[in-house]
Amino acid sequence: MIERELAYKFLREMVLLRRFEERTAQAYQQGKIGGFCHLYIGQEAVAVGAINALRDSDYVLSAYRDHGHALAKGMSAREVMAELFGKVTGCSKGKGGSMHLFSKEKKFLGGNGIVGAQIPIATGVGWAIKYRKRDDVVLCFFGEGAINQGAFHESLNLASIWRLPVIYICENNRFGMGTPVERASSIYDLSQKAYAYDMARSHVDGMDVIEVYNTVNEAVARARGRSLPTLIEARTYRYRGHSMSDPIHGHYRTKEDVEEQKKHDPILNLKNYLIQNHLWDESDYQKIEDEVKNIVTDALQFSDSSPEPDDSELFTDIYTGEYYGRTHG
Amino acid sequence: MAEKGRGEVVTYIEAITIGLREEMERDERVWLLGEDIGVYGGAFKVTKGFIDKFGEKRVLDTPLSESAIVGVAIGSALNGMIPVAEMQFADFISSGFNQIVNQAAKMHYRYGAPVPMVIRAPTGGGVHGGPFHSQNPEMWFVKTPGLKVVEPSTPYDAYGLIKAAIRDPNPVIYFEHKYLYRRIKEKLPEEEYIVEIGKADVKREGTDITVVTYGSMVHFSLEAADILSKEGVEVEIVDLRTLLPIDKETILKSVRKTGKLCIVHEDTLTAGMGGEIAAIVAEYAFDALDAPIKRVAALDTPVPYAPALEAFFSPDTKKILVALRELAAF
Q1: CATH superfamily label, A4-328
Q2: ipTM of model
Q3: Cis bond leading into B116, ω under 30°?
Q4: Which pTM was predicted?
Q5: Which chain B residues are closer than 8 Å to A182 by Cβ?
Q6: What pLDDT was estimated at residue A304?
């Protein structure tokens, strides 16, 4: 059993991720956010449970569905929302957008718009930790679609032969865009991929934040203490479409499928846990909702009123040194 | 919804779909593979309904494995099939790079075995896709002997080129522009046709300035030409359609007629197609030039997400007009 304080921290963070993205969807529909935008709603327990098992100095890398991981790692709602708005106050000055969130300060080494591309990078971060004799660890999130990229297999092999402190978390939300995992993967229990690399493995109910937390804690201990990698499969579910342009249900799942999954909602699950353990306090929960509402409303107002990036920003950050190209249109 | 076909007014994306469908009907060796192309109908719906029509054996949903998608396509081509592989976004082609530039491109050179295959890649910006969903990666492949590279700008060419690509015995990369997918329409001819690979097309005749361009920039260039026409300047628009092999004859013929050249592309400036065209003209038609060659291209930076910055980054009608007016005044 976990302490009340920690349980409420999980609750607060999951509510933040959810409300943040509900308002993100509204802002997208209002045309304030453009391009491709992938929501994490339904999967909150994975990011919150896993990242809470870390110290601040540990690293997190994610994929294109990265808003939740960024917020859970401590990035501010303002800098994330402003990035989605394409404003200069965003974490990447509006130049990256939804899939390119990043915070050096928070050790969040990015979302990534190429499936699986973050996995070798996370492995390299782990290598450097070991080489420099630090005791930090790396959490690398990716979807179940990414395990069919060669990059996944090449990386896990390296992490195993070099004994790197990297925890690979496969968030199996059942669909690679519109293709069910059963049609894309040769095995159902994806954590079994670890056998091929003689790596520790677990699979966990990704709708249960406490189970995620406990499982990742064990993996963190293994990584920090013995510099060993782990592959964890977290079974979860996304409630929204693959991206904002994909309907919630349609070709690959029915409305009933989605409604059925919502009965296992991670926030609801935690609430039930708290009720069963006589820890639920409706007024504390309401305080969380109020506080989160203020944070998200503030982030929206901040993003709305922030300036667009100046044209000169196009030429910054491309190199550490001076930019070579011509700078006029 | 009834299937659209020849003789109807169709969008650019519908023209691709029609061409693909006809080739699959014509030749049972043609098969499709890619991420979410079957049940989902493709990220942009190019292959919507194909899995029902042609079955799962010819329309394969693959895992997210670009290297394997291209490799399997090559293997099947070596064994008598004609695969059409879809990259969900042209940007993701990077994950299949080795299979394309080393394996597919050099298979015939190394073994004498033809590799009839097509890789379709939705390319380009203007949709606020940001750094990994907006790029124009054609020059990675134009630099690779053994490949052919095409990029249609109209429904007519989209239909004719997808068919030509499928019938070509070499690996062809078919860039289709996301921005054009549903923005332009035209009536396709009743009769079946192909657009020959390696042939540029004069999209507008003119006497004063030649614009060599391709893809989405054809339309911005045409718009600029219409504006200049009212000012008494007649611009000729050469749409490359095929980037490799380059149709030197059509380019040189036009430049010899007008004496002035502006190259326009959405890809970034440095080492873009413009440099190659400029070099060809400088080498073979230097004597015909009455003015320095101009290039209008995206700036040499990653593609920014912020809509305001993307507009600044990308070429458009206004920027083309600035260059053309300078040339006209020269």
Answers
A1: Thiamin diphosphate (ThDP)-binding fold, Pyr/PP domains (3.40.50.970)
A2: 0.84
A3: no
A4: 0.91
A5: none
A6: 98
